[in-house]
Amino acid sequence: MAIESSANTGRTGAQVIVDTLRINGIDRAYAVPGESYLSVLDALYEQHRHIRLVTCRHESGAANMAEAHGKLTGTPGVCFVTRGPGATHASIAIHTAYQDSSPMILFIGQVAREMREREAFQEIDYRQMFGPLAKWVTEVDDARRLPEILSRAFQTCLSGRPGPVVIALPEDMLDDIVQVTDVAQSPGLAIAPTDASMQALDDLMNQAQRPVMILGGGGWSQVAGDAIRDVAERHGIPVLASFRCQDFIDNDSPAYVGRLGLGAPAYTRSLVEEADLVIAIGARLGEATMQGYSLLTPPIPRQRLVHVHPDSRELGRVYQATLMINATSPEFAEALSELDYQPTPAHRERLQALRHTYETYSYPAYEGHGLDMQSVMSVLTGTLPSDTLYTNGAGNYTLWLQRFIRFHRFRSQVAPTSGAMGYGIPAAIAAKLAFPERQVVAFGGDGCAMMSIQELATASQESLRILFVVVNNASFGTIRMHQEKRFPGRVSGTTLTNPDFVALARACHLHAEAIENNADMAAALARCLAHDGPSLLEIRLPPDAPFTPGE
Q1: Are 415 and 393 in contact (CB under 8 A)?
Q2: CATH number at residue 215
């Protein structure tokens, strides 16, 4: 995108930053305003027709929205926060973006250059603070270097394994007048597999009797997922999704057989344990997906392992794979589709049996009395459009979604593999802004939702037609479950006294209802969906309701 600027035109550092955002296709930024970057806010005012500034109520919400935007679109989510407390509030989203491989740029207002290293008001050394959490952290000392630094930031967060970049902006630097030339849009760099590695993979696939694919990681696309689906269906290879990556392939595909991760069913765990070839595409094969690194035992798994990953530093980090392929997932998917793998009738019979198991496992039953989450999921899945976009944070309530929702297109499941609570509400706001034509549903447990409940006001301010579902069991359910297993009868710190979620939502100008019986679910849901604006539906579970759907 061309911007009217040249080396002969003086601009403030803040104006250079905003112009660079436009050049790189950024049309939305999330923020909680702060005095440390007032000049950027003023520069955004000048560009308000091109870049929409979404004002949030808490820096964690703003940063989570930016992370979700990156995860949803594959383009960097941009967030501005002030120094000190603003930056520390935003750090959770940086951790999520790193673990989830989401492209994101966090800009932090910083103390003036002459104030540094005096423990000035709200001063933090961001290189030290964010060093382990981000792909790159820097502070801009000279506004003349902004085009160079920002170009590197966009390339870094998009290339290879995507991730977050953090840039600190001393407030006096933002007012410096500089004459600089803008740099063209900085694309991410793709990595293609070699011919030799693909030939080695072809040989392994033709030798395998019990192959399985695991999909995960960042940098995917609808095209890549469709290509993998085509290969798996043609060749009779079962496909599993790694933790919270179930939307990488259409769940109605005959090749899709379920998920790994927290609360994964026994049959998917056995599938990996009994496989003679595991092809992991994009997934890091982390603790959650690998059930505490028990499904594949490091450093050398019993199964033959093909590990495809865009970050060469990840290959061999935990597992010494039979074959390591350094490639981005779309490029690998394209190369995989060209292999001449020959399946046997036994492969197809095995896949059909696994698919039948998945379909039986993922079908929610409805009970006409009481209130239970399986019945709630039955009504939801029977009512909502097939392309509904679901968001959630962390907690046992998420297992109901992971078991009973079938995702049909890439980016329909937006959730943190980092296990961060408070994610679902802000992620839903970013999702609706990115895809205004789609139905967006945010799930949160009572504990999880309360960590970002103030962003309901943001949804109302932006007039976003989102359905927020709060699953209320009056406890930190995940911790309570583990507590009762290890220390039965000794409940400590996990019981919650909650606000009236309906009244709270109405105070934020939402339509809101609560249900306490399955029979009320369909009508309440219909009213919420019909409302022209954000709505909240509280599921008031009885005290004896099960924490999880079980196996």
Answers
A1: yes
A2: 3.40.50.1220
Helix H or strand E encompassing 21: helix 13-23
- Residue range 520-534: mean pLDDT, rounded: 98
Residue 359 CB coordination number (10 Å): 14
SS3 256: strand
Residue 6 pLDDT exceeds 60: no
Q: Do both 145 and 245 map to the same domain?
A: no
Could you tell me if 232 and 146 lie in one domain? no
- Other Cβ atoms less than 10 A from the Cβ of 460: the count is 17
Round to whole Å and give the CA distance between 495 and 488.
Answer: 15
- Token pair, residue 462, equals 């932006």
* 382 burial via Cβ count (<10 Å: 0-12, 13-18, 19+): exposed
> Both 63 and 132 in a single domain?
yes
Q: Share the mean pLDDT of the chain.
A: 94
Sheet strands side by side (includes 164-170): 52-55, 28-31, 77-81, 104-110, 164-170, 136-139
For 88, the domain range is 11-178
- Structure-token pair, residue 386: 């097939």
Question: Does 469 fall in a domain?
Answer: yes
**Judgement on whether residues 98 and 209 belong to the same structural domain of the protein:** no
Does some domain include residue 218?
yes
Which amino acid, one-letter code, is at 99?
A: Q
> Burial level of 280, CB count in 10 A (0-12/13-18/19+)?
buried
- Return the beta strands (E) in 211-337 as ranges: 211-215, 239-241, 256-259, 277-281, 304-309, 323-326
Burial code of 107-135, b = ≥16 C-beta within 10 A, e = fewer? bbbbbeeeeeeeeeebbbebeebbeebbb
Of all residues in the chain, the percent with pLDDT exceeding 70 is 98
The predicted-structure confidence for 190-234, as pLDDT tens digits, reads as follows: 999 999 999 999 999 999 999 999 999 999 999 999 999 999 999
Query: Would you list the DSSP string of 336-349?
Result: HTT------HHHHH
Q: What is the pLDDT of residues 17-64, one digit of tens each?
A: 999 999 999 999 999 999 999 999 999 999 999 999 999 999 999 999
Q: Counting Cβ atoms within 10 Å, is residue 434 exposed (0-12), middle (13-18) or buried (19+)?
A: buried
Q: Tell me, what CATH number does 102's domain have?
A: 3.40.50.970
Same domain, 83 and 226: no
Q: Encode 234-243: b = buried (16+ Cβ within 10 Å), e = exposed.
A: ebbbbbbbbb
Let me know whether 375 and 518 are in one domain.
Answer: yes
Q: How many domains does the chain have?
A: 3
Lookup result for tokens 């290959």: 315
HEC readout, 447-511: HHHCCCHHHHHHHHHCCCCEEEEEEECCECHHHHHHHHHHCCCCCCCCECCCCCHHHHHHHCCCE
- Looking up tokens 């999704």 gives 241
pLDDT, tens digit, 9 for 90 and up, residues 454-476:
999 999 999 999 999 999 998 88
